[in-house]
């Protein structure tokens, strides 16, 4: 006789919206720590670093960094062993996130910017992006995911988490 065991359903946290200003980065990080209370502190710190890079890119390279622009943060566990953070900007950047590959080693050593996505790539198990509306510049959605030990997920976590 087989016993069915149910996997934890997907978990979704309520989205958070932030003004497109780097001055709000500390709030973005603090909210993430609040939302992930009970998770492994090292995992939370990794997610904070990933989120900081994605938020900064959304502000720097799009209209989100202009007056009235916003960045929306989504947080989810699509399965019991994966935590995903996603950020959507307001568009106006004219490009898509990419890791530059046309640099020599010396140029990389001297480069001031464009290292954030290298960090995202190295800290996550996967990352990606898509245009929110390919026919119009309505923004870009960038995501990164990290592994989670299902045994260390807070037991009181519900399928939908309201933020405070």
From TrEMBL:
GO-annotated molecular function: protein serine/threonine kinase activity
Leader peptide range in chain numbering: none
Matches recorded under Gene3D superfamilies: Histidine kinase-like ATPase, C-terminal domain
One Pfam family of this chain: HATPase_c_2
The keyword Transmembrane appears for this protein: no
Alphabetized UniProt keyword annotations: Kinase, Serine/threonine-protein kinase, Transferase
Domain Histidine kinase/HSP90-like ATPase: residue ranges: 19-127
InterPro entries the record matches: Anti-sigma-factor_SerPK, HATPase_C_sf, HATPase_dom
The keyword Iron is annotated on this UniProt entry: no
Xref: CDD domains: HATPase_RsbW-like
The protein's name: Anti-sigma regulatory factor (Ser/Thr protein kinase)
Species of the source: Nocardiopsis aegyptia
């Amino acid at each position: 006789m087989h016993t069915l065991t149910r996997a934890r359903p997907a978990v979704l946290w309520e989205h958070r919206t932030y003004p497109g200003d780097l001055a709000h980065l500390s709030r973005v990080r603090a909210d993430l720590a609040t939302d992930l209370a009970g998770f492994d502190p090292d995992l939370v710190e990794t997610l904070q670093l990933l989120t900081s890079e994605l938020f900064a890119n959304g502000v720097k390279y799009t209209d989100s960094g202009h007056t009235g622009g916003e960045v929306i943060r989504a947080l989810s566990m699509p399965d019991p062993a994966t935590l995903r953070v996603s950020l959507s900007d307001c568009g106006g950047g004219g490009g898509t996130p990419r890791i530059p590959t046309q640099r020599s080693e010396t140029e990389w050593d001297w480069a001031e910017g464009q290292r954030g996505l290298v960090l995202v790539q190295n800290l996550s198990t996967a990352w990606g992006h898509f245009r929110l509306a390919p026919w119009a510049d309505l923004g870009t959605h960038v995501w990164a995911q990290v592994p989670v030990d299902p045994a260390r997920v807070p037991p009181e976590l519900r399928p939908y988490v309201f933020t405070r």
